[in-house]
Amino acid sequence: MDVISNIIKKNNTKIILVVLDGLGGLPVKDGKTELELAHTPNLDNLAKSSALGLHIPVDLGITPGSGPGHLGIFGYDPVSYSIGRGILEALGLGMEVKNTDIAVRGNFATVTYEGEKVIVKDRRAGRISTDENREIVGVIRERLREIDGVKIFIESGIEHRLAIVFRFPEPLPEGSDDINDTDPQVEGAEPFIAIGRNPNAERVARIVNEFIKRVSEILKERERANYILLRGFSQMPGIPTMEERFSIKPCCIATYPMYRGLASLVGMDIIEFEGEDLKSQIDTLKRVWEDYDYFFIHIKKTDSYGEDGNWEKKVEKIEEFDRELPSILDIKPDVLVITGDHSTPSLMKGHSWHPVPVLLKSPYVLGGTSSRFTERECLKGELGIFEAKKLIQLMLAHAGRLKKYGA
Amino acid sequence: MDVISNIIKKNNTKIILVVLDGLGGLPVKDGKTELELAHTPNLDNLAKSSALGLHIPVDLGITPGSGPGHLGIFGYDPVSYSIGRGILEALGLGMEVKNTDIAVRGNFATVTYEGEKVIVKDRRAGRISTDENREIVGVIRERLREIDGVKIFIESGIEHRLAIVFRFPEPLPEGSDDINDTDPQVEGAEPFIAIGRNPNAERVARIVNEFIKRVSEILKERERANYILLRGFSQMPGIPTMEERFSIKPCCIATYPMYRGLASLVGMDIIEFEGEDLKSQIDTLKRVWEDYDYFFIHIKKTDSYGEDGNWEKKVEKIEEFDRELPSILDIKPDVLVITGDHSTPSLMKGHSWHPVPVLLKSPYVLGGTSSRFTERECLKGELGIFEAKKLIQLMLAHAGRLKKYGA
User: Fold this and answer.
1) Up-side HSE of residue B400: CA atoms within 13 Å toward CB?
2) What pLDDT, in 10s, does the model give residues A36-68?
3) Which of A116, A163, A329, B216 has the fewest CB within 10 Å, making it most exposed?
4) CA atoms within 13 A on the CB side of B6
5) Residue B270: helix, strand or coil by DSSP?
6) Helix A130-143 vs helix A199-218: angle between axes, to the nearest 10 degrees?
């Protein structure tokens, strides 16, 4: 990527990246994939005059989580930059995470006390309701805001799950998250003490152990959910921003916290807006059009229905997008890319490793290779099958933002 | 590959890799390749519903030998792991090679003595017959079994060729094979003394020089083939086994010693069986089906006839395989891959660098891209053109043996 940083130039072009989460599929009905089953006259039309291909999110055969999937299409090597579990969980719950922070996942658990000993009776506190979880978190929040100058932020997840962010006064050195899980993973055992594997991590572990102690005091009268087990301590990966690397000013127009969080990790501005549908996203796009030059639009439901194995609904979501596509084209971006972060074939009810269809519209394409925007038609396209992390190079090139390399 | 080792998981799936040696070809008759000329109704049928593509054995334009060709499709970087000539020769003659061993190729040569000096008259001893070679080897074997605790194994090759394995009492440190050839490569010159380029290699060289001296004493009354010239000293490369790297239990069902040897280098169990045809191999496959989860089946003749430039016979061998294919499909492997280790176009009468057709059958493919299993139809396939060493990742993914990467 040194080549890129040496040939980057700025101009006034506008680039849109539309991510239909989990877009790629496999044959699920009459030998056709979700994209093939969908009635998509606008995408078909656009495909005929666009550059098509498929991207490999991480590597052949590797099924990416949402983190690696998005890092790739944002132009980052998903193997070099890994995002810890705690960070992703916190982002998913809409929490802010900074370079001063340690994020961690937690469970409310039920313990008993045998003398000095704490014994885990139920690692999930009987899977308490999300409402009960929120009540407890409310109580903790009120009574525990800070420990030795370290601010504490807690957010409820589903049922017994939660995320905690410990915010230190200064940025944390690398390795500060090198701390064992306190969750013993089995019932009848004692929770582990958090131990830092280096001096910086020791400092964090001290706060963590104090936090657990105080929480257990706050909850000690409860019959269940009277303790907290933590796992996946993680800090912000040291990721240079997209602006630093590509000299573009990027923003994110997404509804789900996880994707807003991922976008913020690479330095995108997160745009606030009302509404949850694609129409509101496109209205927002128009509203901020003059303020940025790279716009990441994230559409979640294609993935969700793929995960459910509900191909009919995934097809519907693709068709919904197709209906809104003209209003995106009306904005006349210089470069428009439509793709996914990974495949989520309804057939497999989960993420998969299969290459993901990519459509790139710009004035500088061959086009005419394919009749539709589907996995099989993309195989005929001019972009071939390429690594996701190189998508940014194509987008920048088509936007005239890369100078000639060498004389 | 650290990514892979972190996401490997075990399950009960069965994977078959069929290697038709030297499979790929070039147009040789009516503009058609061997695969295109062959009548292959079963392969055609399978191709329609499988994932197709081509693999590049080593790199663009690089023609691999059998060693690199097989290492790649077994999932090993053929450039990082190189197999010495001596090892390959010994394996090809059906000799066992262990981590205690130094293997080397040899020629019987004719020398004359001028005082203290040994002068090479004929580096190939007049290309003695293989029978004469075997006779001489028999004599040496009888009289020279060990030198200073190092066991000596000799095997005749074709005409004047042979291979020798020196088996030391303990595993040899890396670099023990760093010894010059003793073959001077020209006639009228003296053979070189073997010199080790480090202390471990010196210890080996001492045994080698003693070996050459003793052999020349045994053969000194002969008019020709009275000396031995050695080249390509090599020891076992430190290759982690497939089981260590991929948590699969692999076995090899091959008739030719070279391929059995290559398979043993990566830790495959070598299955013994009667017969030399594909039917016996498939019977053997059925017999050991419960004992392994990865089955390497090697078919040699496609390469041999390609090397001879005999495209009619190569076509016949492909058609023979096609007829047996249904009995492999009957076993219902979870993943079946059919490919070659490299191309051997009859047109070129030798190995070549051309990408090799790959067919992957599993429930998780797009399919429907191609009508036959040929070079040109594979170009339309969903796997694209990819590096051979990544084939294992695809096979493991399709077998459900790779977990999601990242959250």
Assistant:
1) 13
2) 999 999 999 999 999 999 999 999 999 999 999
3) A116
4) 10
5) strand
6) 110
Length of chain B, in residues? 407
Please tell me which of the candidates A27, A68, A352 has its beta carbon nearest to residue B367: A27
List the single residue in A63, A79, A89 with the smallest CB-CB distance to B404: A63
Instruction: State which of B235, B260, B288 marks the end of a domain.
Output: B235
Q: Verify whether the Cβ–Cβ distance B7 to A62 is below 8 Å.
A: yes
Distance, CA of A395 to CA of B51 (rounded, Å):
29
A346 and A282 assigned to the same domain: yes
- Which of residues A235, A259, A277 is at a domain's end? A235
Whole-number Å distance between alpha carbons of B381 and B357: 10
> Does B195 fall in a domain?
yes
For residue B125, is pLDDT > 90? yes
Is the interface score ipTM higher than 0.85? yes
- The CATH number that applies at residue B7 is 3.40.720.10
Amino acid identity, position A135:
E
A320 shares a domain with A179? no
* Cα angle value A30/A36/A40 (rounded, 5°): 135
Flag whether A404 is in a domain: no
Q: What does the alpha-carbon distance between residue A265 and residue A258 come to, in Å, rounded to a whole number?
A: 11
Whether A207 and A122 share a structural domain: yes
Dist CA B127 CA B110 (whole Å): 10
Beta partners for residue A161, in sequence order: A107
Q: What percent of chain B has pLDDT over 70?
A: 100
Q: What is the pTM of this model?
A: 0.90
The answer as to whether A406 is a domain residue is: no
Question: How close A212 comes to chain B (CA, Å)?
Answer: 25
What residue numbers bound the domain in which B370 lies?
A: 2-83+239-398
B402 → chain A, closest CA residue: A62
| DSSP string across B100-127 | TEEEEEEEEEEEEEETTEEEEEETTTTT
Q: What is the mean pLDDT of residues A273-282?
A: 95
Number of domains in chain A: 2
Q: In the prediction, which pLDDT does B116 show?
A: 86
Longest dimension (CA), chain A: 77
Nearest C-alpha of chain B: how many angstroms from A25? 8
